[in-house]
Amino acid sequence: MSTPTTKSAILDNGLRYKAKVSGSPFASNSYSGTSTMSCFLCGKHRARSLLGTRKFLGKTQAVCAPSCKEAEEADKRS
Q1: Burial of 6 per CB tally in 10 Å (0-12, 13-18, 19+)
Q2: Residue of 70, 64, 74 lying closest to 43 (CA atoms)
Q3: What is the DSSP secondary-structure string of 51-78?
Q4: Which are the contacts of 53, defined by CB distance < 8 A and separation ≥ 6?
Q5: CA triplet 44, 18, 26: central angle to 5 degrees?
Q6: Contacts with 37 (C-beta within 8 Å, 6 or more apart), sequence order
């Protein structure tokens, strides 16, 4: 089996990924039920339907509902 050719290299100007595919792995659809956001507290990406909101320093942030610990346990069970 041959080694695949490398499509990325560090260039002289310090840039990498000359042939990297553009876009995000967290692309959202037009239907908001399938889009994801990261929890402000734990940083894990979850569906928006699994997040709630809490105020932190006067700004509303998306957080795991009802808590990050319970959401993590629910992930392990499923």
Answers
A1: exposed
A2: 64
A3: EEEEEETTEEEEEESS-HHHHHHHHHH-
A4: 60, 61, 62, 63
A5: 20
A6: 45, 46, 48, 51, 62
- List the structure tokens of 51: 């997040």
Both tokens of 26, joined, read 């967290």
- For the chain, the structural domain boundaries read 34-77
Q: pLDDT for 42-64, tens place per residue?
A: 999 988 888 999 999 899 999 99
Separation between Cα atoms, residue 63 and residue 77, nearest integer Å: 20
Residues in the chain: 78
Which residue has 């990325």 as its token pair? Answer: 8
pTM of the shown model: 0.55
Instruction: Say if residues 13 and 40 touch (Cβ distance below 8 Å).
Output: no
